Amino acid sequence: MASNNVLPFYHQKALNLFFNKADASTENIKLRYEKMRSVYYQDRIQEALDLANSLLQLNLKSMGKGYLESSILHYKGGCHTQLGEFKSALACYKQITEINRVNNSAWAAITLIYLKLGQKDKAEQAANKALEIFPDEKQFDFMRIELNL
Questions:
Q1: What pLDDT score does 2 carry?
Q2: From CA 6, how far away is CA 83, in angstroms rounded?
Q3: Structural domain boundaries of the chain?
């Protein structure tokens, strides 16, 4: 499947709405979100980051209990990570934990970024927080091994 056909109908509809400066209706937000995801998985990272930033400027509260905002922040954090902008990525993941303190993938990302930055003490603190919330989560085995927890 060609990368441009990831979400052909919605992809084109999202592009049309985005570039024609459509309103911030629920449908438009969903389409722009799908566009962001689509370009992210096509490794068009800067474009995905720009879309994430534009989405975060909108009032997303009408879309649910922070789920959409958290998801956009995950993609934004992933973009920053792939661009080597680890401090910006860290800010995204920390913002997710402010929205939902039990978001296990955000805590995992925070731990990994602190390790990448060489800040083992902070990585241990983040890992301990994650393990406190999710003591039996197999996803965090890497933390136990890497940090000797």
A1: 46
A2: 23
A3: 1-85, 101-149
Provide the greatest CA pair distance for the chain: 53
Rounded Cα distance, 127 and 131, in Å: 6
Going by C-alpha positions, the residue among 20, 14, 74, 15 that lies closest to residue 49 is 74
Q: How far apart are CA 147 and CA 149, in angstroms?
A: 5
Instruction: Count CA atoms closer than 13 A to 142's CA, side-chain side.
Output: 10
Nearest to 32 by CA among 8, 46, 16: 16
Long-range contacts of 121-128 (CB under 8 A, 24+ apart): 123/147, 124/149
Q: What is the pTM of this model?
A: 0.76
Per-run averaged pLDDT (10 residues), the chain, 149 residues: 50 54 68 95 97 91 78 97 97 95 89 93 88 73 65
| Cβ-defined contacts of 40-48 (< 8 Å, 24+) | 40/75, 40/78, 40/79, 41/6, 42/3, 42/4, 42/6, 45/79, 45/82, 45/83, 46/79, 46/83, 48/75, 48/79
